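Can you please make up a whole protein chain along with its backbone structure tokens because I've never seen that pairing?
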Amino acid sequence: MINSKINSTKFYNIGQLRVQYWNNLKQDTAKLARSQKGSDEESTYRKSALDLITELSGVERFFTFPGTQRLDSFSGCVRRSEYMSLSNQVSETTKQLVSDSYRSHPDISDDDLADEKDEWEHKQASVKNDFEVLFVEDMPEDEEKALKSRLKDLRNSTDKFNYSIIVQRSFQDALIALQLNHNIQAVVIRYAPPFRSSGISDLIKPYIGPIIKMDQGSRADEDLGPLLGKWIKQFRPELDTYYVTDTSLGELKDSTIKIFRRIFYRKEDVQELHLMILRGVMERYETPFFSALKEYSQKPTGVFHAMPISRGNSVFKSRWIKDFGDFYGRNMFLAETSATTGGLDSLLQPTGPLKKAQEMARNAYGSQHTYFVTNGTSTANKIVLQSLIAPKDIVLIDRDCHKSHHYGMVLGGAYPVYRIPIQSKNTPCTEQCP
């Protein structure tokens, strides 16, 4: 049975839509490989496969994997009637996309296809952390390939991170990529990108309504780069943004200088940009409190508190529950402590790693302040409720919410008004709702 055109509005996000399209393409190419040459079935599934590839191209151009070049190679397979090879490649690509396994060798996308796959997997076997960098510039394709090649040559086997390049050629396309692709962790805006996209697929329009309605076409091209940087800070404040320009520092506006993490000049070597991208992500990858906890666990510490675990001694020296320690591992017990000062800082008045960790969390969330809670989700819910409500407030709340919300309202002196949850017509209510 041929897959009918998918209604994109029924999917919660673009990820669900992509998976559905790739599964449909996998099914149709498998049927195409089994069809008889010259039959009506072959003609039908051939057309269906080409239609799906065309529609997917409007989505995949915002992702480095699978990439539009791979889709072009699939189209070539269809036109050359290489159906079995096509089916195998689509099946493997779908499996990698759904399982996220492609991120173990992220650059097998646009430029590194099947013939280079084994070599690339060998080179990248130790890479565990990868991300994507968005370059925004209306550059020709040969310049894009040269840029990717130069940045790829700068990689070092000792690098803790690996990144792939995705290029968007307009202001709108850049914002669309940032909205759809969460794996983008840095943005490089080069010169003045045009505002309007050359073509937005109908498939993604339900997910990018505000971007489509946006109109900055009257802006001067030279203003669009700094403006894009400003909007990125509001839209995705966790990202590192960089600006490449020929304008001298003295002629740049103060507001432009403050927007970007660093401004580069075209004549500067691309190596500086490469190193800055890695450094920015490395700084965000820091875990001050966890690092302090790991360091603490390796210190010889005298235990004087009443907690019975005693850094695992009572477990690993026992003849009866040693398997308990083997199951959880020694590090969990070595990190056990009741101390809130010294190397692990204080929750009540942090001055060291805990303070730095909360500041990093604040920057990631884009909030004014972020505080950690160690008492569990229920206590966190009570804290949030008591910060939002005042005594004698009337609060509308679902009757089936977690009990911590009820306790929080009682502690805050509010009056809850319970609303009966919406029940499915086929699922009768089994409890008496107040």
